[in-house]
Design goal:
The chain is mostly helical and 117 residues long. It has helices at residues 3-8, 16-19, 21-38, 44-60, 68-114.
Length: 117
Amino acid sequence: MSSGQALEQNGSGGSWLRVHRVRTALWIAALEAVLAAITKTISGYTIIVLGLITIPAYFFWGKNQRGTIRDITWIAAASQALAIVAVLLAHFIGFFVLVLAGIFAAIALFLIFSDRS
């Protein structure tokens, strides 16, 4: 069996890509988020710019296509949207952790200086 036939049909009659597109998009988004967290070459801005390209491309062009092209553009748009959510959460949660650490430090300083024994 050639690889083209493997993409076209699985046992249930749907395309393999369509059946696995959510899982594929999640894996791509997770990989991008991890790479953005551990490398400096892929930044949150890069992920956002890629999302600004792929998401409109799907809505204006890919959604009107058939078959594999539609599935690939859907996966690209969904994975970028998920990666953008991950980048934004990491940014705001990271900021929240710094604010919380500052509050804890202020409370600790208050308790240290208020202890007059």
